Known about the structure:
Layout: H1 6-9, H2 16-32, H3 41-50, H4 66-72
Amino acid sequence: TAYLSPEQIRRSGVTAAADQFALGIVVWEVATGQRLFRGEGEAALLAVLEQPIPLPSSAGGPVALDELLSRML
């Protein structure tokens, strides 16, 4: 559930952007060595909808990814 896009959670029209969002999460996690969204079940879903997404550099990742992942996420 931590890789679902907001539109998937809301059950609205899902496009290729949902895949881009999931890929962005994976890249963020690989770059930082941390989970972006923590929690299980409904807590994880709420995190995706409500938690602000930190830039990778703020979590120890490379600054070069900040702009790209800001667009993906």
